[in-house]
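Running this now, will post back.
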Amino acid sequence: MKDNTIPLTLISILADGDFHSGEQLGERLGMSRAAINKHVQTLRDWGVDVFTVPGKGYSLPEPIQLLDQNLIQGQLEEGKVAVLPVIDSTNQYLLDRIGELNSGDSCVAEYQQAGRGRRGRKWFSPFGANLYLSMYWRLEQGPAAAMGLSLVIGIVMAEVLQSLGADKVRVKWPNDLYLNDRKLAGILVEMTAKTGDAAHIVIGAGINMIMRTVQSDVVNQGWINLHEAGVNIDRNTLAVQMIKELRTSLLSFEQDGLTPFLARWEKLDNFINRPVKLIIGDKEVFGTSRGIDAQGALLLEQDGVIKPWMGGEISLRSAES
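Update: finished.
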């Protein structure tokens, strides 16, 4: 992988949100102003807004709170956490290392060059703007026992965000978080398993925190960030709380399945008792959402009849959208 030492040092200097002249930066980094400009372009390629003002230098629109390995690891009593500045994908990082991981081992990144969403979509991942977190879990009961897992992850994430001040965060079946009816976060669960063996699961989560702009060809639905909603959460604190609560809840899920989480889902369900449409390939199915069943299927009411719907190719939108 390309050596990113200089751009990472540069972002650590600019993270305070103040202006820094090209001359000052050149002296600190031992290079010409022209070379500095080249590394500034790398930051822009990473999705960082860097202002250039003649006579003043370079600045970010606002300070960036960088992830701190020592701070995060220091607040966790057990398990490993890798803090990665630049990575292709946090999920792929763990998938490549499954043989050396224990349940609950995690990684967080400042920037993903090839972040993944559901159904092969790209997950837009600008540097320092959001939280990109992945966790490994070994499910001894095998793949069948993972049914409903993404719903549990959504519940935990929503509850953690609510506890830190984002009290209007809700869940959307099967694996998104919503705020004010717009997408705030996504969840991607990837699994490898052999028949009759334990399931090796990697759970990925991306939470929009201060992301200001997106590539319209990548993000195809209404989205929101915490900052826009007036919620400012310390990224390191959020990472720690997510890892702690996910570990606790995954142990509970392993022992008791989805059932203990059903009431918690109902409290958080963004679309319960609202008109919705399911998108299944080219087909649209309209009805009223009635929550989920004990298997994690969506319950859709049509003409007074409630039917469960399950499957990776189903999307949920409010009927008005």
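The chain has eight helices and 14 strands. More later if anyone needs it.
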